[in-house]
Amino acid sequence: PATEAGSRLYMRANSSAIVIDWSDGVEIIDNLFFGYLNGVLCSAVDLCQFMNITTNKFDQVRYGVNATGLGAFDGNITANTFNAFNSQDTAAQARCISITTQKSALESITIVGNNFELSTEDLVFISGAVPGRLVILDGNNYRSWAAFKSSGVYSAVNASGNNTSVQITGGIFTGQNASAYSYGVSGSLNAIQITGATFISCLRST
């Protein structure tokens, strides 16, 4: 049945709206994604490059953009609004953007002008052993991560990787749900630069 105990519950636990395994240029623009496990899933078996994910709305999507697997992800994520939340299962892991690719290829990722409204874990999570990953985060709003958590470490931006470098420019970080567990920026990476950002009700940035 089309109820929170039926099909909607199943969709949030299992379904993906758009799945891309291998691409050489894809644009996903001005869509509404509601009630999915994954909004855009790049379960890359090879290279997903020249990606452009722009002006979309992700409502109650546990992973708005999820790039994972043995491939690589390269492109732009701009001007989207994310609500990575499952109102029926607040213990479920949820991240607005999750990039955990593993391919031996270079990655350049730009995340600009997005509104991150809510997640039950990190808002932006980046990890994986790639030979060189450059990430730019510019002018995003980061609000309400680590929602409903009472222990652990969760961050608005959690980025790791020996060959990952991150530049954060501007943005407001408001860890208002569980500030005792809400780090602003965390991770273990090659290099990081933070300029002109504002941190409110965050545990700290590390």
Q: Can you characterise this structure?
A:
- This protein is mainly beta and 206 residues long.
- Helix content is 4%, strand content 55%.
- The protein has one helix and 21 strands.
- The chain has one helix at 7-14; strands at 16-19, 23-29, 32-34, 38-43, 47-54, 57-59, 63-69, 72-78, 81-84, 95-101, 106-112, 115-119, 124-126, 132-138, 141-143, 154-159, 161-169, 172-174, 182-186, 189-195, 198-200.
- The strands form three sheets. A seven-stranded parallel β-sheet has the order 1-4-7-10-13-16-19. It has a seven-stranded parallel β-sheet with strand order 2-5-8-11-14-17-20, with no helix packed on it.
- It is globular, with a radius of gyration of 16 Å.
- The mean pLDDT is 89.
Brief account:
The protein has 206 residues and is mostly beta strands. The protein is built from 1 helix and 21 strands. 4% of the residues lie in helices and 55% in strands.
Q: What's the helical proportion of residues?
A: under 10%
List the uncertain runs.
Answer: none
Largest sheet: 7 strands, parallel
- The secondary structure category is mainly beta
Calculate the terminal CA-CA distance, rounded to whole Å.
46 Å
Round the Cα radius of gyration to an integer and report it.
Answer: 16 Å
Large-scale geometry: globular
Order of helices and strands: HEEEEEEEEEEEEEEEEEEEEE
Mean pLDDT: 89
Strand content: over 45%
Q: What is the tally of helical segments?
A: 1
Give me the side-by-side strand order of the main sheet: 1-4-7-10-13-16-19
Number of strands: 21
